[in-house]
Design brief:
heterodimer, A: 280 residues, mainly alpha, MetI-like fold, 2 domains, 12 helices, 0% strand, B: 309 residues, 2 strands, flat
């Protein structure tokens, strides 16, 4: 009786603790989402997309920051997808099991988890300091270096899921290996590869730290990637720490925009991945 | 040249392109380490081993020591891990063992999506919501309750503005929580259902199943997850920069303001006054890299071992 009671009681405590942990976690995250929506939606109007960042007290928006972020992310994604796709293909199709392949995989994991601010320092040392100037290209390079490991990793995972028979079929038709990979393996894995790119985009679109000393910031609307350029995260950082209410309101609206973009990229990536796995 | 032989001629070129892309990743990481070493070298050369133990950080007199930021990084990360670990494990166990099927998927997906929210969003929430609330409802009441001269006064001493080591750890804990919960859940799902069900079959309670079947089964993987969470906390920059108070020197209490390696770099790098200031900040970057790399290597090792079983 005593022992059974002890077991039941201990179990009840344990189950209760798990419920409370989940409730706590969901509450904390719910509170954050609530603040973000409440503070962000208020500042979200058409001006955000049409006007540049204002001087304190005057009316303005985030158009220069949005444009800068889009341009840097787009440039970064082009580089990251090319490098990631090829490197992932190397790991899955060519040298994945060699010593060099294992080394690359390990280093890719290190890059995947390395603090993003260190990538910013690296790009500062190789691009900003020698060229004597902050630029949008430096920002894009830093972001590319953060997205490429994500694309590499997902590409390898997806390609390894492709059945061996596909490769054998390609060889049986006498096609060179690179055509087999391009026309059969990549095509079969298309959705998964797109997911990898979207996850990479989700990873970099909110990155602030590496942009602070590569792209710096720019108060004005600019499309020139060889000059300092504004980005949403950098503007949010600057405005959130300012003492002006209208700047802070813009910071919340920007934070909401970034969160929505990241959520959208993640959700679309998941839907594509799920559809692909149903078909197989 | 026939079409086919032209296709075959491209084979080595394509392979070469793939190898080069992989090598580019290797070069990037080598470049990161090399640039941190070279950039930070003047600081190591000037301050020697004392760089790691000196608590002064003074751009005016050009004396730099990393002890404050190193301590701040280790303390906040350890505290964040201590706060997040039990809750993340609880969430994962709830999702795998108790949660009604209809809710399990939505909650699991929500947790995974929250793991991707950029840290600057968490940082803003910390700055505008958590810090004022914490100052008003925790720090100020505690000023009245705590007897002067007691040990508690030393531990909880600090300016009541909510920007301190503890709130920074709290934000870090909330940030790594969804990530750790998501990975823990995946790990718990690798336990074969037969093993768990046979434990239930001999009359084990859920606590006993988790304690004597699930956790021993995933033990080394679980340590890997903990290390990954720690790695995230160590390198986290923006959220911490918003809320830690950015004071140099060793923090003297839980509610004292402080700084971390990453937050110091983020705050001062673009405004660094002299060559030595930049070098000292880059040296902080190298210290951060070494710490995170060590943690990460251990995590990979343990997770790889876990996958082998």
């Amino acid at each position: 009786m005593g022992r059974r009671f002890r077991r039941t009681a201990a179990n009840a405590l344990f189950v209760g603790a798990c419920f409370i942990a989940t409730a706590l976690a969901l509450t904390a995250l719910g509170l954050i989402m609530y603040s973000l929506l409440r503070q962000g939606l208020g500042g979200l109007d058409l001006n955000i997309f049409t006007k540049s960042t204002p001087a304190p007290g005057s009316e303005g928006g985030l158009s220069n920051a949005i444009m800068g972020s889009l341009m840097m992310c787009a440039a970064a994604m082009v580089i990251a997808v090319v490098v990631g796709l090829l490197a992932g293909t190397y790991l899955a199709e060519y040298g994945g099991d060699s010593a060099y392949g294992h080394l690359i995989r390990f280093l890719n994991d290190v890059l995947l988890a390395a603090p993003s601010i260190l990538v910013g320092l690296f790009i500062y040392e190789i691009m900003v300091r020698p060229l004597h100037g902050f630029s949008g290209w430096a920002g894009a390079a830093a972001l590319a270096l953060l997205a490429a490991p994500v694309v590499t990793r997902t590409t390898e995972d997806i390609l390894r899921l492709q059945p061996k028979e596909l490769r054998e079929a390609g060889m049986g038709l006498g096609s060179p290996r690179w055509i087999t990979i391009r026309k059969i393996i990549w095509r079969g894995a298309g959705g998964g590869l797109l997911t990898g790119a979207l996850l990479g985009f989700a990873r970099i679109s909110g990155e602030t730290a590496p942009l602070l000393f590569t792209a710096l910031n720019n108060q004005f609307f600019s499309l020139d990637m060889s000059q300092p350029i504004a980005s949403l995260p950098a503007v949010i950082f600057q405005y959130a720490l300012s003492a002006y209410d209208d700047w802070r309101r813009l910071a919340w609206a920007g934070a909401l925009l970034i969160a929505l973009a990241v959520l959208a990229a993640n959700i679309i990536g998941r839907v594509i991945a799920a559809r692909g796995s149903h078909r197989q | 040249m026939t079409k086919q032989s032209r296709g075959a001629a491209f084979d080595p070129i394509f392979r070469y392109a793939c190898v080069s892309a992989a090598t580019l990743l290797l070069a990037a990481l080598t470049g990161v380490v090399a640039s941190l070493l070279i950039g930070g070298w003047p600081a190591f050369a000037k301050f020697g081993i004392g760089f790691f133990f000196d608590t002064t950080w003074n751009p005016v007199t050009e004396v730099y020591g990393a002890a404050g930021p190193i301590a701040g990084t280790l303390i906040t990360s350890a505290l964040a891990l201590a706060l997040a670990l039990p809750i993340a494990a609880g969430v994962a166990i709830f999702l795998v063992e108790f949660c009604p099927g209809m809710l399990a998927r939505p909650i699991a997906i929500a947790v995974e999506l929250l793991a991707g929210i950029p840290s600057i969003v968490y940082g803003m929430w910390g700055l505008f919501v958590l810090a004022p609330w914490f100052a008003e409802h925790v720090q100020i009441p505690m000023l009245y309750v705590i007897p002067p001269g007691s040990i508690w006064e030393t531990i909880f001493n600090g300016v009541p503005n909510g920007a301190n080591i503890f709130t920074a750890s709290l934000i870090l804990a909330i940030m790594i929580l969804p990530y750790m919960a998501a990975v823990f859940r995946e790990l718990f799902l690798t336990v074969p259902p037969q093993v768990r069900e046979s434990a239930y079959g001999i009359g084990c309670t859920p606590l006993e199943v988790v304690g004597s079947v699930t956790i021993p089964y995933v033990r080394s993987g679980a340590v890997g997850v903990i290390m990954l969470g720690l790695g995230r906390a160590l390198g986290e920059t923006m959220a911490v920069t918003f809320i830690i108070g950015n004071a140099h020197g060793l923090p003297t209490s839980l509610f004292d303001s402080g700084s971390t390696l990453a937050s110091t770099i983020a705050n001062e790098f673009t405004e660094a006054t002299g060559e030595m200031h930049t070098a000292a900040l880059t040296a902080l970057g190298l210290v951060l890299f070494i710490i995170t790399f060590t943690v990460l290597a251990i995590a990979r090792l343990l997770l790889a071992r876990a996958r082998k079983y």
